[in-house]
Write a structure and sequence with these properties.
Blueprint: E1 2-4, H1 21-33, H2 37-40, E2 46-51, H3 56-61, E3 68-70, E4 72-75, E5 92-97, H4 98-104, H5 108-126, H6 131-137
Parallel strand pairs: 2-5
Antiparallel strand pairs: 1-3, 4-5
Helix pairs in contact: 1-5
């Protein structure tokens, strides 16, 4: 998920910096748990990880324009593209970037809402939805 108008930098004062890494992880886990059971039961071979900032390679892989950053990134083979030959592969990865999220929000409730939206957005990619699909559905 992209965020406009924010350049990632570890020098930023975090507006909600009192949210510890453990508390941030708990919010991410709650967001994953909020996915309806019918969909969550289909989650296979996918890991959710939290990193502080997107790397240059992550930004390039996601084709992020100058002046934007990432809140989250899905990397892997979507369910819609997995064939009978899909086996013995490393797990797909959903990465949630703590630094950009903390820097973009000064209200913890809004931050939690965005974390949930980001988690759901990235899992939509796991299920095979593109950004264009999400925009058409009004959930991009």
């Amino acid at each position: 998920m992209l965020s406009q108008g924010f350049r990632a930098s570890t020098e930023h004062d975090l507006a909600v910096g009192d949210l510890t890494p453990a508390a941030f992880e708990e919010v991410v886990l709650e967001a994953v748990a909020s996915i309806p059971d019918a969909l969550r039961n289909q989650l296979s071979n996918v890991d959710v990880v939290i990193e502080q900032w997107p790397s240059t390679a992550d930004l390039q892989a996601a084709d992020v324009p100058e002046g934007y950053t990432l809140f989250g990134l899905y990397t892997g083979v979507p369910l819609t593209e997995r064939t009978s030959g899909y086996n013995m592969v490393l797990p797909d990865r959903i990465t949630i970037y703590r630094g950009p999220l903390l820097a973009a929000f000064d209200d913890v409730a809004e931050l939690k809402d965005e974390i949930r939206a980001t988690v759901i957005h990235e899992f939509a990619h796991f299920f095979g939805l593109s950004d264009a699909d999400l925009e058409r559905l009004g959930v991009a």
